[in-house]
């Protein structure tokens, strides 16, 4: 079993990248999802999207590990899960998507420590949100720089609103951190087969130390299940309050609100968010992550929105 770790900070677009990789390549995968929050929303998204047109025998397995980080607090569960996946499913490739606040060097060291001859660690990939690159590099340097420094392949995402000169500036800055990485600044949705095949090759970059680094996370998370809201207008008002720091500083939010008539799916990164609607059955849970969250105020508001509906 070949293990490919795809890292990236909160909201970088790892899940979207993985969906495109599966679509563009004809390989046998199992996906291992590690969420920082208590609800694995990305895992549910992957299950639905990658298995949409597959028969039961063709479906891709998605394993989930929530409420912790596979690089430190839940590393024993992570390592034992890898062995179980290899011994029971034995896929050609295991894609590991760690939490956005995970140290990539710790993940790589944890996999290496398994010491099982049937498990081969491939050169890792890091996905970077080009729009928040300089902000997050400065504010969350310990995690952000670690993910870059030990990555063999680095792919910029969310590039559509940036000029070629701006993308080159980011790539040049990345080279000052890791001058051996393969840096891709083009739109991977338009990439050819050679690009995708190339991501499964390359030399591993040895971390500075084999020891597991202990990092005190600056991030807090709020998970709220059975999330209801009146309608789209109320959802827009609520998300606008988040980006204007009404509930404190929140870098990441995602999930599903249930209204009386439809579901509202939302995805928030930094000061931007997107929404779409569906009638399909979905778990109406939401997760918010950030360094300074007024948990009491946020939960009180979420409870109040549910009471209005009921």
TrEMBL record:
Limits of the CobW C-terminal domain: 222-304
The protein's name in its UniProt record: Cobalamin synthesis protein P47K
GO cellular component terms attached to this protein's record: cytoplasm
Pfam families linked: cobW, CobW_C
Domain CobW/HypB/UreG nucleotide-binding: 3-183
Record organism: Pseudoleptotrichia goodfellowii
